[in-house]
Amino acid sequence: MVGRSSLSDPEYAWTEPDGVDAGMVEGEMRAVTVHVTQPREDNPVLLRFSSLTRLLRVTAFCFRFCHNARRPQDRLVGFLTRAELDAARRCWVLIAQLSDFSEEVDKLKRQQPLPARSPLLPLRPFLDREGLLRLGGRLQHALLPYSEKHPLILARSNHLSLLLVRSSHAASLHGGPQLTRSLLLRQVWILQANALVKDVIHKCVRCARFRAATAEQQMGQLPEARTRSSRPFRSSGLDYAGPVTIRTTKGRGHKAVKGYICLFICLASRAIHLEVASDLSTASFLAAFRRFTARRGHCQHLVSDNGTNFRGGDQELRAMFKAAINFYHETADSLATLGTDWSFIPPGAPHFGGLLEAGVKSVKYHLQRIIGEHTLTYEEMSTFLAQVEACLNSRPLQALSNNPSDLTALTPGHLLIGEPLINIPEPSLLDINQQSLSSRWALISSMRDHFWKRWATEYMHHLQQLKKWRRERPYLAVGDLVLLKNELQPPARWALARITSLHPGPDGLVRVVTLKTASTVLKRPITKLCPLPVEPTPNVDANDASN
Question: Domain named Integrase catalytic: which ranges (predicted)?
Fold first, then answer.
């Protein structure tokens, strides 16, 4: 054997090896345990289907096409058979099981025990003759069909499980979670099936239609007119009550006609003014409005609902002001100063005028208990409404105190005339000299300022709390599909609509939206909408919003 020549040299002749650079020495390689998770993706073909029936039929037709291509002499034609649909179902179940439980299937094929961390360990799974993973369980001797004793096993996250739950929910005629799950267990055993069944039922559009859960939003800030002291009825609300039956004449053979009660309410003091209107026409409303302003002073800001008579009244007043400016220059300035700022609450949103609805309710309370089934003449109805008006304006603005030393409760009458309208009359002041009258006027002015101070310190603090709608809710988005609630129709006939635009309030919260239905475009509050559990469609074209 011949080796290196240096091996035969004397020991002292051996040369020392060159120094090794420490930077060239490789660092110590330590084993580090890491977890590598590869996200599982469902079959892209499977994800294109949202119906189990359609999936199985398309798959069965594909199998038939392959069969007919291989065996043209033995072609399959006509309707799909039960065997073909079952073969399609087994095919997709096998694909799903190999995707979710590949390790368990491999262990069972090798007749090895399942891993200790396997979710299938409590189910005692086994492979049938076709290689499908089935539940072993403990019902081997039960008098049940084989498919119910040993159902197929699927994972919750697989899209096929979602299709099976949807199919069972439809087969149960949109039953609840228990009924849907009982039908599902006759076919397959899905891990964590309860959560999946509840999620499918919650997102079922047909079930959501009958649950009819309308959208809500946190209560907004009170308008400026309700939180600042001003002359009574400078900012007012308007609403109609009725109809009521009014007699044209007294005695026998009288004719009865329909009449209405026109209610004006001060937004600051909650004082009420009532007028009788012969009908709901614009002319009748304008006459009632003129009587109101003649007695209570000019109204700068008027709030009402979207009644057609109120819309017409607004247009007619604007036309009158415009005509005065064009043809009557002398009175143009005075009519401009007497113009009324008219605003309307959103259509179908009576809670936007809750103060008006509360006033109408109070008027009806006295109307039903005093008049009952009787029919009054126009004069009698006007007198009765004046008395009702006095009663309502004598109500306390806040709860009464049990302390006898407290002051008299503040009422709207204190802000109108300095005392409740139902009160003991004071002595005559005709015999008092002018100086005493001046002092009396100063006293009245002081009392008025005192009442408004009490209004600010006692009544205003009762408006702080949120009586309902206390939490801020998630916003509706443009493109959301909703149901337009209609109290006059059953939920099955409520119109489908898609949100096209949002109208945020001063606080930035959305309470009114614009909708597009199959036939029209509407503006409605969110309390009339029932959101459907479907994915929103961003950037919706107005022409395709209802499709």
Answer: 228-420
